[in-house]
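Saturday, quiet lab. Running sequence design on the structure tokens for the scaffold JK sent over.
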């Protein structure tokens, strides 16, 4: 049996031992630490509620790990880098267990969960974005078997299929790494545009972030960082990191419910219900509802369950995270990954108003939010110009937007 200690590391001085993960004959088990059970905290209240005794992860069709730990694991891009690293060490990635992957991440994780014993955590080092963008191209083309250490440190843990980096940012200075940063630096996530995405993907997402903010959607600070001729990377300040290098526990909607985010299975009814149950805050329900309105109007149909997240403070208070991954996208089969009252292909204003009633929102409040989202959508060319999009690209995206 192989084991791994799980901790909640809100800061260097505020660390709680959560419990022990174990693998035995390809089955995963978890046991909460007795001291953690007295804290009153819940890291995953729906699928892994705090309780004494050994807990077997029985939903193996969902995945090899309970969802709360799966949220620490990278998806396509981060897993690709991780596998390259294992091959460099002469290891077959197929033989690497989920616990070994979590141990490799150690403290270099999104959110506040960390895994021990872990690999060494290197000190942050200066990062040249143009050089990293070139390296990303080579990795994606399969032209290199050796990955730059800076790229491994910065890109090994973010979720999502596309290349991302977790960096420290101070003005125009970048540092690689995901752990503690020197004074003056803040934590940011940077996306590297690829040929398949379009080299202007960063500028499109930058324009969408500002359009979402104008629609009343809560957005973290965003920037465009140059990475070469006509290539700008979209950068967004991380919301799982707070002032003073503090961490917040983060849990995605999909993994809270053990729902496969790759298969459309959720409705916005689920998002609003979970938001109400978890945060007990009707303001957060309204925030989630407004985000749904924006996704429908802005043709963001890649609205799967991992693109919604919740944050927990050291006091155990949950809130809906700020918005992220807002881009024009067609979704599976041209439909929304998350349906609106069962409608995925063409959700209408009527569907949206019916959902408001289900969520306990007043009709007048819902209509006001719809009007505010519509007002922002009609200003698309203004945001496209701010993002330095070409007229052709602006027109292509604008044709997909619609007023509710």
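Result came back. Writing it out in full:
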């Amino acid at each position: 049996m192989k084991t791994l200690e799980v901790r909640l590391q809100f800061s260097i001085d505020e660390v709680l031992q959560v419990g022990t993960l174990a693998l035995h004959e390809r089955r995963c088990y978890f046991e909460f630490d007795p001291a953690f059970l007295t804290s009153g905290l819940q890291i995953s209240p729906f699928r892994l509620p705090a309780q004494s005794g050994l807990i077997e992860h029985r939903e193996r069709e969902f995945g090899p790990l309970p969802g709360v730990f799966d949220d620490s694991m990278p998806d396509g891009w981060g897993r690709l880098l991780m596998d390259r690293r294992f091959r460099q060490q002469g290891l077959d990635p197929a033989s690497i267990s989920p616990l070994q992957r979590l141990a490799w991440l150690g403290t270099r994780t999104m959110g506040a969960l960390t895994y021990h014993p872990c690999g060494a955590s290197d000190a942050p080092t200066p990062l040249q974005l143009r050089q990293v963008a070139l390296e990303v191209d080579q990795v994606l083309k399969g032209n290199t078997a050796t990955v730059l250490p800076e790229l491994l440190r910065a890109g090994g843990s973010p979720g999502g299929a596309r290349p991302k980096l977790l960096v420290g940012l101070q003005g125009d200075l970048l540092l690689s790494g995901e752990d503690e940063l020197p004074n003056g630096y803040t934590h940011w996530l940077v996306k590297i545009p690829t040929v398949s995405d379009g080299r202007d993907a960063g500028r499109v997402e930058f324009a969408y972030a500002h359009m979402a903010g104008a629609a009343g959607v809560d957005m973290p600070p965003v920037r465009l960082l140059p990475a070469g001729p006509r290539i700008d990377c979209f950068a967004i300040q991380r919301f799982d990191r707070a002032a003073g290098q503090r961490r917040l526990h983060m849990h995605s909607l999909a993994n809270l419910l053990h729902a496969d985010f790759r298969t459309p299975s959720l409705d916005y009814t689920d998002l609003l219900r979970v938001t109400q149950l978890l945060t007990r805050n009707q303001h957060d329900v309204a925030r989630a509802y407004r985000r749904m309105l924006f996704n429908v109007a802005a043709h963001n149909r890649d609205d799967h369950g991992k693109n919604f997240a919740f944050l927990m403070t050291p006091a155990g208070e949950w809130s809906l995270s700020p918005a992220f991954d807002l881009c024009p996208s067609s979704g599976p089969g041209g439909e929304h990954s998350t349906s609106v009252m069962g409608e995925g292909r063409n959700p209408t204003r009527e569907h949206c108003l019916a959902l408001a009633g289900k969520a306990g929102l007043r009709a007048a409040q819902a209509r006001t939010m719809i009007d505010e989202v519509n007002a922002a959508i009609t200003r698309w060319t203004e945001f496209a110009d701010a993002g330095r999009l070409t007229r052709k690209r602006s027109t292509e995206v604008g044709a997909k937007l619609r007023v509710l």
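Notes for JK: Residues 214 and 248 are 26 Å apart (CA to CA). Residues 282-297 form the longest helix (16 residues). Ask whether to fix the surface positions before the next round.
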